Amino acid sequence: MKKMLGLILLCALCVPAIPTLAQEKSPDKSQEKAKPAIPIKVQIVLTEYDGDKKIASMPYSFVAVTDERMGGYYSTSLRTGVRIPIETDGKDQKTSYFDIGTNIDCGVRTEEDGRFHLYMIFERSALHPGNSTGDEKLEVTRPNGLPLIRQFKTSENLMLKDGQTSESILSTDPLNGHVMRIAVTINAIK
Predict the structure, then answer these.
(1) Residue 152 in contact with residue 180, Cβ under 8 Å?
(2) Among 69-73, 144-148, 151-155, 185-189, which stretch is predicted with the lowest mean pLDDT?
(3) Exposed e or buried b per residue across 11-36, where buried means at least 16 C-beta atoms within 10 angstroms of its C-beta
(4) Which residue of 47, 102, 115, 185 sits 20 to 30 Å from the alpha carbon of 57, by its own alpha carbon?
(5) 107, 95 in Cβ contact below 8 A?
């Protein structure tokens, strides 16, 4: 009886270990071979049109790296512009500053099929002219003489091949009817 009980106990201890031996060990994601970092030249052109007439073209160019180990999606940030003082009414008359210009956050990841996944946040702000030029579609009054600030913001996820250009953003300014277009081109640097 003792031998039988000992044999049952031995079998009970060995049976759970059998499935773990039969399972294949899957490779751990942290041990998989990391994709090599590739520098990507990103060119962004913001173009403003009044009908068919090009009014302004503002190019931006920088390098983003496709290294997934850097953490986060946005590996490159570009800030250009000026800070303008704005006084607030009240007994304290405090002055605060507001950023005017362009802010770009961008990141690029390599996809399995060789294309690149570009993540981008693009923000542009500009002062509205103080006097009416007559071409505004909407009548806007300036509160207490404070400046009006135009804003254009977009967030994009693009799938692009090396050398490809995408013009996927088109927006109309409600004040004057001007059309804003963004063209994005990427080139792998070899």
Answers:
(1) yes
(2) 69-73
(3) eeeeeeeeeeeeeeeeeeeeeeeeee
(4) 115
(5) no
Q: Are strands 165-172 and 149-160 parallel, antiparallel or unpaired?
A: unpaired
CA dist 121 → 7, 9, 72, 78, 142 (Å): 68, 64, 14, 10, 29
Give burial (CB, 10 Å; 0-12/13-18/19+) of 108: buried
Q: pLDDT tens, 106-140?
A: 999 888 898 999 999 999 998 876 555 555 544 55
The structure's pTM equals: 0.71
Domain boundaries, the chain: 35-129+145-188
pLDDT at 176: 82
